[in-house]
Amino acid sequence: MNTKAIMSAGTASHVGKSWTARKRKQLPAGGMEAISVKALLLLCTLAGMLYPADAHRIVSTAPSITETLFALGLGDRVVGVTNYCHYPPAADTKPRIGTYLQPDIETIVALHPDLVVVEHMPNRLPQELDRLHIREIVVDHISIGDVFRSNDVIGQAAGVPEAAQKQNHEL
Fold it and tell me: Which of 26, 57, 123, 164 has its CA 20 to 30 A from that of 78?
């Protein structure tokens, strides 16, 4: 009986080595390099989904956000503002999405935004936008520190971080 156990162990060991050797021979040309390139491409694709390209259709949900967007040079990308957004004067020409406290989600969706900038407030807009797979960022404008941070966040999301840094420096 001990002989069979030893023979089986020897056979299993030999089979394991043969299998590994066969697998190495079966790798495609480039071997691990080809697999690494595929993994890198997959990571780049996932990164693109996590950090999408610059926003080109932006909706503002507060007057202070609208002013920030225009100050960062993004006025031409703004496709919707609240009923109370009147400054700068160009904001008056933009489609209206409702009020600050009651934005109309259907109107926002109809504008096909690739970014909605939401001021932190007690409504469910961020959750609704998430549910509809519409990218949003939430900012605060309570303190001067909040303004600096929101400039940076909006600048990053819209692909104009240099403009945000310049705006912060000028403030």
Answer: 123
